[in-house]
Design brief:
The protein has ten helices and no strands. With 206 residues, it is mainly α. The protein folds into two domains: 2-68 and 158-202, no CATH class; 72-149, no CATH class. The two termini are 30 Å apart.
């Protein structure tokens, strides 16, 4: 986290330079594309808290994301594999309504075994959700997995949900190496505003 405090302002600065003149800074744009993580929602939120020097908010969101008792193996990979199995075994057209998906996710045995206490709905919750009073909730629940419906924190340029990367990036060792190299370059040449980027494909820093 503390290493990212040095990365975030430089990434935001490089993005500003590139955005103001994409033609002249096309290579800087390619470098930012190699960084990769700066185009996704969660890292952008962390960048906002870091740049605005809000350590309490930063630590809170990191705790919520990573320091809980459960792991992503149970609540993500295994649960979605369970959901995929249920879709395949209960329908012929490989589709399922969102509400049915929510129900199967609640019933997933892996979530219960993850070490996290489940807050399960009861009969009263069902009636409330299905009632006229629950209409607003049903409307919002249909959008809660959409990044466009998430209010983004302020403080970082270009930080709106419709500009977040909605495509999966390549993952693996080579992708990680490109990202690390791109960040290393941004750190190394920050004092020159990356003006000599066109000559650095050879690895020459001079």
């Amino acid at each position: 986290m503390w290493a990212t405090k040095g990365h975030s302002p430089l990434v935001a600065k490089a993005e500003e330079i590139y955005t103001n003149d994409k033609v002249s800074h096309v290579f800087l744009g390619k470098c930012l594309a190699d960084v990769g993580w700066n185009h996704h929602q969660f890292p952008r939120e962390l960048m906002a808290y870091i740049i605005q020097d809000l350590p309490a908010s930063l630590e809170h969101v990191l705790y919520q994301a990573f320091l809980g008792p459960s792991t992503t193996k149970e609540i993500c990979e295994s649960t979605f594999a369970w959901l995929h199995y249920k879709v395949q075994s209960t329908t012929r057209n490989s589709t399922m309504s969102d509400w049915t998906k929510y129900a199967y996710c609640i019933l997933s045995p892996y979530t219960e075994a993850s070490g996290m206490n489940q807050l399960l709905p009861d009969k009263d919750d069902w009636h409330i959700i299905r009632s006229e009073a629950g209409k607003d909730f049903r409307g919002s629940a249909a959008k809660f997995l959409s990044i466009q419906s998430t209010e983004m924190p302020s403080g970082v340029p270009h930080l709106d949900a419709d500009k977040m990367n909605k495509k999966w990036a390549k993952a693996g060792v080579l992708s990680d190496e490109r990202s690390i190299a791109a960040v290393a370059y941004l750190l190394e040449e920050a004092e020159n505003n990356w003006s000599r980027i066109t000559t650095h494909w050879t690895g020459d820093w001079a």
